[in-house]
Amino acid sequence: MSDQELQYGLFPSPITPLSMARGLTLAEVALSPQGYLLWLENRSDRGVIVVQPLDGEGRRDLNADFSVRAKVGYGGGDFGIWHEWVYFVSAENGRIYRQSLLGGQAAALTPAFGRAAAPTPSPDGKWLAYVHTYEDKDVIAIVESAGQNWPQILVQGEDFYMQPAWHPEGRRLAWIAWNHPNMPWDGTWLRVAELEEEHGSWRCKTVETIAGDEKTPIFQPLFSPDGRYLAYVDESENWWQLWLYDLQTKKKRQLTTVEAEHGLPAWIQGMRTFQFSADGRSIYVVRNQQAQDRLIKISVESGEEAAVDLDTPYTMLGQICLTQWQNETLLALIASGANLPPRVITVQEDGTTQIWGRAYPEDIPFDRYSPAHPIEWAGKDGETVHGLYYPPHPLPKAGRGLPPLIVHIHGGPTSQVKNGFNPRAQYFATRGYAFLEVNYRGSTGYGRAYRQKLRFSWGIYDLEDAVSGAQACVERGWVDGRKLVIMGGSAGGFTVLKALEDHAGFFKAGICLYGVSNQFKLAQETHKFEARYLDSLLGVLPEASTVYRERSPIYFVDRIRDALAIFQGEDDTVVPRAQSEAVVESLRRRGVPHVYHLYAGEGHGFRKSETIEHFYKTVEAFLKEYVLFG
Predict the structure, then answer these.
(1) Dihedral angle computed from the Cα positions of residues 439, 441, 443 and 449, in that order, rounded to the nearest 10 degrees
(2) Contact at 8 Å (CB) between 101 and 109?
(3) 163, 212, 160, 234: which is closest to 448 by C-alpha?
(4) What is the pLDDT of residues 194-252, one digit of tens each?
(5) What is the pLDDT of residue 199?
(6) What is the overall mean pLDDT for the chain?
(7) Helices (H) and strands (E) in the chain, counts
């Protein structure tokens, strides 16, 4: 066939199910002033720490014995470093291990019960503070870094802890804490303790609350190198803004005022958006504005800002860290662009970047990827909704009619799809599908008021914005209104089920990954981190039982008559398999076209290469049968 005869959805794509399966996830990055760059690669279902000397010689894996992944809540806070020592959490048993970059085997520091996260070495390297959970009790613990003594509980009493940070003098510790029913983006406390140690026994001599309350979330405490300031991100108004607390004068000062996000909802441990320069005179912060990131340098004294213009057009930046290397400031980040797959990079002060690690082989020409277009449209009530639109790419000179559209609903639901590399969108766009990422009301990135639109309205705005987004694409003449598909996982999977029930016939098909079908069961069975999340999304039981029933797809599942593909992890503890299988039972009984796959050894989100390859092969066949040719 010539280009003029290509059918949308059947373009020859350079992205294969196998290449999707073999891509890496870059999860953490760290710099050592001793000249090492480390990062965490999730290779299939294994997490591997890569060690890269900054002189360029001798890149290697830290070891071959351990899969590195912390599993407190949704994870994160997988490893920490101090000089030549690496402290990491084993995915298998949740223990913290210590290993030297100079050689030798790993040794366990913590006992084999519970789960640890966020190992944070003290400034002198003798102690390790960390978050620990056991039998649903969370604490901040401390252990000798050489592993000679039993760990001690340092802080307890709140439901959750996150982001421990040492003062440079080693006698103060800051952390974030919160209690049910809050999530960490609802309201948290930033606390600082003065520590006292005698003969290896630690206690908090005093504890002071610096910022935050039950309605004000705080993110990422960090002391300045000279110990004078405590920096943090505060969302007391409509945007995550950077603040400084002067430990000498006890006064607070807001450092940023731009209507943009300088923090993140803390879904996992170990998240970072800013770092002090080595001399403490500046802060480098990642600013998220209109789903796109920029690196900004801010003077601590004056608040004056300057953008760090990178020599490569990266639009998504994460996990910023910094060190002084060869008398120069060196930053490291995980970075990507709409057509640039994720990379581990270092950045010099003038914006010069160097690539050290890649998530994909980058053997596909960058111009083969679809450009992402930030778009807006009016929701059902006329309010503005945000999204990213990926047109089919490359466009033939004369396609057959208009392309099919896949409307993708992110999870969370308090998440955001940014204008970085999106392998799922590219997989379908390069095959001739249009792809719409809906940052529905309730999403992060557009201010607190936008995110809080979903309070008590889950299943309303997310659904309305998915439908209105599809309608907008049809009305603008971009896509074929007879070939609309809705796709999503977790909270997004819930929206898929609701859409097929409440708007039967509008979408030609649905693709649901581990979607919530029963809100009562979710409230009863999900993990501790989200055990009270529904209080703010739907209401408090039993008073809100009517709402829970109205928003539970399982009670209206017999309305579904459009083709549906369901995918589920066998070991999912967030949305257990019974939620998916109750939907499948109805589809089977009524003869509704569907496919169902249960993946062994998978949890909430798929990691294994064989699972990911099978998923994309199955989805492509499903779409051909029920959308392209159906």
Answers:
(1) 140
(2) no
(3) 234
(4) 999 888 889 999 999 999 999 999 999 999 999 999 999 999 999 999 999 999 999 99
(5) 82
(6) 95
(7) 10, 36
pTM beyond 0.85: yes
- The letter for the amino acid at 406 is I
Tokens of 410: 């992110």
Q: In 3-state terms, what secondary structure has residue 117? A: strand
Cα→Cα distances 467→8, 46, 329, 473, 482, Å: 22, 38, 48, 10, 13
pLDDT of residue 1: 41
Q: At 443, is the secondary structure helix, strand, or coil? A: coil
Residue of 443, 348, 352, 339 whose CA lies nearest to 394: 339
Task: Tell me: pLDDT of 270 over 90.
Answer: yes
Tell the residue number behind the tokens 């949308």, with chain if given.
Answer: 8
CA distance 192 to 182: 21
**Residue 571, by phi and psi: left (phi above 0), alpha (psi -120 to 50) or beta?**
alpha
The alpha carbon of 293 is separated from its chain's Cα centroid by a whole number of angstroms, namely 15
- Residue in the block written with tokens 């290779």: 43
Please write the tens of the pLDDT for every residue from 577-627: 999 999 999 999 999 999 999 999 999 999 999 999 999 999 999 999 999
How far is residue 356's CA from residue 358's CA, in Å, rounded to a whole number? 7
The encoded tokens of residue 315 equal 């639009």
State both tokens at 351: 């914006």
Predicted confidence band of residue 396 (pLDDT cuts 50, 70, 90): low
> In terms of Cα–Cα distance, which of 499, 502, 475 is closest to 485?
499
Residue ranges of domains in the chain? 3-17+371-628
Beta strands 384-390 and 137-144 are: unpaired
What angle, 0 to 180 degrees and rounded to 10, lies between the N-to-C axes of helices 461-475 and 491-502? 70
SS3 (DSSP) at 102: coil
- Residue 373 is which amino acid? H
Among 145, 53, 66, residue whose Cα is nearest residue 101? 53
CA atoms within 13 A on the CB side of 396: 21
Ordered DSSP codes for 29-94? EEEETTTEEEEEEEETTEEEEEEEETTS---EES-SS--B---STT-B--EEEETTEEEEEBTTT-
CA distances in angstroms from 427 to 239, 317, 410, 422, 430, listed in the order given: 33, 22, 16, 9, 6
Superfamily in which the 3-17+371-628 domain is placed by CATH? Alpha/Beta hydrolase fold, catalytic domain (3.40.50.1820)
Backbone angles phi, psi at 625, to 5 degrees: -70, -40
pLDDT band at 398 (very low <50, low <70, confident <90, very high): very low
For 419-454, what is each residue's pLDDT tens digit?
A: 999 999 999 999 999 999 999 999 999 999 999 999
Provide Rg for the chain, Cα atoms: 24
DSSP secondary structure, 507-536, as one string: SSEEEEES----HHHHHHHS-GGGTTTHHH
